[in-house]
């Protein structure tokens, strides 16, 4: 598809409140139209449940499995992150499910060390970066803090990324950074950005969909929301012709 709806889900995830978080996620997912892209906030189902890591891994596995089926039933492309144990190491991994298939899985490359992620998760390497060919174009997942790193984003563009999907738990104290970076990266790379951030007392909200000109198609500052906008991939070519970089 060259034109489709994209959604960024926004809500507050409480650490270790597995069922409540997941119930909210599923409720919001039901507001998304078939044949669309849905981006879910970082570790939305578990929160950063460091004190019960094994349970968080098992619950994330359940969520991944069920959302694969959900994506098939509603013809969705879904981007989500969660706890994943690989060879005895704990990762914050992003998954892309496209209409019943897992088409991408990779660990977070740039951990947010000020928030203590490095004490719990292992970091992936730049070689893990990849894009996913989906029914919603070529998706380039960017996990929260990775948004700050030009090398990560430029590599994903070089790999063919058309729509940058950003699941995040970006802190409220740095809300302006989040809003500016989403737009600046869209302008810099001439690509669509769909940023789904957590909300509540600690997280910045301000989930948004931004086009390759840096125009905010849709945004919601605070609270629980389903942010909806149209992605027209032909706009990428138009922008590159008018402003070749």
Task: Indicate the mean pLDDT.
Answer: 97
Q: What is the percent of helical residues?
A: 25-40%
- Looking at the structure, what is the overall shape? globular
SSE string: EHEHEEEEEHEHEEEEH
How many separate helices? 5
Q: pLDDT under 50 segments (min length 5)?
A: none
Strand order of the largest sheet: 5-4-3-2-1-12
β-strand amount: 25-35%
Q: CATH class, anyone? A: Alpha Beta
CATH superfamily: Carbon-nitrogen hydrolase
Number of domains: 1
The span between the termini is 26 Å
Corresponding CATH architecture? 4-Layer Sandwich
How is this structure best described in words?
It is a single chain. With about 240 residues, the chain is α/β, with parallel strands linked by helices. It has a single domain, classed as Nitrilase/N-carbamoyl-D-aminoacid amidohydrolase. It contains 5 helices and 12 strands. The strands form 2 sheets. A 6-stranded mixed β-sheet has the order 5-4-3-2-1-12. Strands 6-7-8-9-10-11 form a 6-stranded mixed β-sheet, covered by helices on one side. The longest helix has 21 residues. It is globular. About 45% of the residues are buried.
């Amino acid at each position: 598809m060259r034109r489709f709806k994209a959604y960024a889900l926004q809500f507050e995830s409480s650490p270790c409140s597995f069922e409540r978080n997941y119930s909210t996620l599923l409720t919001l997912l039901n507001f998304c139209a078939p044949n669309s892209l849905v981006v879910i906030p970082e570790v939305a189902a578990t929160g950063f449940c460091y004190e019960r890591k094994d349970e968080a891994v098992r619950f994330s596995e359940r969520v991944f499995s069920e959302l694969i089926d959900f994506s098939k039933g509603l013809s969705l492309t879904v981007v989500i992150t969660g706890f994943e144990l690989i060879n005895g190491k704990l990762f914050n991994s992003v998954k892309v499910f496209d209409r019943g298939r897992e088409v991408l899985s990779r660990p977070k490359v740039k951990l947010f060390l000020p928030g203590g992620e490095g004490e719990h998760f292992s970091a992936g390497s730049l070689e893990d970066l990849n894009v996913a060919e989906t029914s919603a174009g070529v998706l380039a997942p960017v996990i929260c803090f990775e948004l700050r790193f030009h090398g990560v984003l430029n590599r994903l563009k070089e790999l063919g990324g058309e729509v940058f999907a950003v699941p995040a738990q970006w802190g409220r104290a740095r809300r302006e950074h989040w809003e500016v970076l989403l737009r600046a990266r869209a302008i810099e790379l001439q690509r669509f950005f769909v940023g789904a951030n957590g909300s509540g007392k600690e997280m910045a909200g301000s989930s948004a969909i931004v086009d390759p000109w840096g125009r905010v198609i849709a945004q919601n500052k605070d609270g629980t929301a389903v942010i909806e906008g149209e992605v027209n991939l032909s706009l990428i070519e138009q922008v590159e012709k008018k402003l070749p970089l």
